[in-house]
Amino acid sequence: MGGAFASAPLKPPAKSPHHGRRRKLEKLRTRQVSKTARAARVTHMQPISQPAITSSADDPAIASALGRIPSGLFVVSWRESGADRSMLASWVMQAGFAPPLVSVAVAANRDLLAAIDREVTFVVSVLADSQRPLLARFGKPSADPFAGLEVHRTPSETAALADAAAWLECRAVARATHGDHVIVLGEVLSAGGAGSEPLTHVRKNGLRY
Which of 11, 68, 71, 151 has its CA 20 to 30 A from that of 168? Predict the structure, then answer.
């Protein structure tokens, strides 16, 4: 047939009445995912700005008073590149109820801090009073200080001392730096242990380990 037909412009398909609602839900989910991802990162807390105060690191009164603060002794462990890593710690304390939190003071040159920045889970094993001989082993770790010891693997496969008074598996949620130690705040994910009497420790000089 030899005639020309005028084509009518196509109308865009009518939008579903639910289209706007779906767009809002998608945006809400995106915001929630972003918020969850941000929450999973370790928060670096900023120090409080205060006027400078001069105190002597050799003041015998300060050294004596700090030394009388009792503490336990702890093995902090983590897993990295398929190997168990560990350090001995003495400044660990509970820091919250809901969620359950612990704080760990870590010397600024310790490898644990770099591992925490990579979101590695860590375990605090609370040494029992009967485990005092382990101090030398973990104070200056050999290639594998866990060798020959009974080890419990936590859900993250991190090593915990099975005979410890208690162990707590944690993920770092915040850290604060001031002076020569970093305070790491860990949320407790799982826990266990023998329930035995923990080792307690006081020092003659609170300005030394």
Answer: 68
